[in-house]
Design brief:
273 residues; alpha+beta; 8-stranded mixed beta sheet; 6 helices; 12 strands
Length: 273
């Protein structure tokens, strides 16, 4: 369920959209650029050493698929600056061996809105650790009667950059002292259009919680701590504001800056979206 999102604008455009500063983003890019140099130097010494573009680059003018490819995402929180966070929540109480297991099993990428207030670790975070994941679209799979899967790309009709609700936390690695910021994406029941698309897998008939501009302000307003008030924000986004189309198989492989990732391809089965 929604392990694939697109952000096809640079960080400056995101900062302008949300009225945030960029200093942390630029600092993160410098650190990651140094990591890239180290990785490429290793490859020069040992050709068998694989260098993954995705593991060492903060997306700027890229189509990114964070949960599987680009672990560093631009996030809007209560801070005056954009943050760089890892997709895949690491709760502050986690031990190093827990973190290894979370990564290996691909855990804590999504959180269901229906269990946000009761289920650990979301219940620790919903009141004071809310955030926004800026996107230009997201990808969901459609299961065909033949068993094959066709992915669809979904975006807002009239808005380039839009917001998905999330929660975040900070974890301190006891072995290195490094603080890791991480987040989880919130999902709701699917609207009628998304039910047609996202009909299979382990968590069918789900979609990301898209926030309206009014909901954005309320979601980031941490003076709102009533469970009922927060629950009211987590409504299902209407299908009338969305458009979707099928994209190529294995869209998440190859160069993430390839605009062909989101170009339409023929439907294998008409969905009448």
């Amino acid at each position: 369920m929604c392990f694939f999102t697109s952000l096809s604008v640079n960080a400056a455009a995101v900062a302008k959209r949300y009225g945030k500063q960029l200093d942390i983003i630029e600092a993160a890019r410098q650190i990651l650029a140094e990591q890239e140099q180290e990785e490429r130097a290793k490859q020069e010494r040992d050709p068998k050493h694989k260098v993954s573009f995705f593991d060492i680059h903060v997306a700027e003018d890229l189509y990114v698929i964070p949960a599987y490819a680009e672990p560093h995402c631009v996030i809007v929180s209560g801070s005056d600056e954009l943050q760089v966070m890892q997709w895949g929540l690491i709760p502050r109480t986690a031990k190093p061996e827990d973190v290894e297991r979370y990564n290996r099993q691909n855990l804590f990428k999504n959180a269901r809105s229906e269990t946000l207030f009761e289920k650990w670790p979301w219940r620790m975070l919903w009141a004071h650790h809310r955030c926004i994941i800026p996107v230009t679209g997201f990808f969901e799979p459609h299961r065909l009667p033949s068993g094959k899967t066709q992915y669809y790309f979904t975006k807002l009709k009239d808005t380039e950059i839009f917001s998905i609700a999330g929660l975040w936390d900070d974890w301190v690695n006891p072995q290195t002292g490094e603080t890791v910021l991480s987040f989880v994406l919130i999902t709701t029941e699917a609207n009628a259009m998304m039910r047609k698309i996202h009909n299979g897998g382990n968590n069918p008939f789900r979609m990301p919680k898209i926030l309206t501009p009014a909901e954005e302000r309320r979601w980031l307003d941490l003076s709102i701590t009533s469970a009922n008030a927060v629950r009211d924000i987590l409504s299902v986004y209407p299908e009338t504001e969305l458009r979707a189309w099928p994209v190529r198989p294995k869209f998440n492989y190859g160069d993430p800056s390839d605009e062909g990732i989101v170009e339409p391809v023929p439907e294998l089965q008409p969905l009448n979206l």
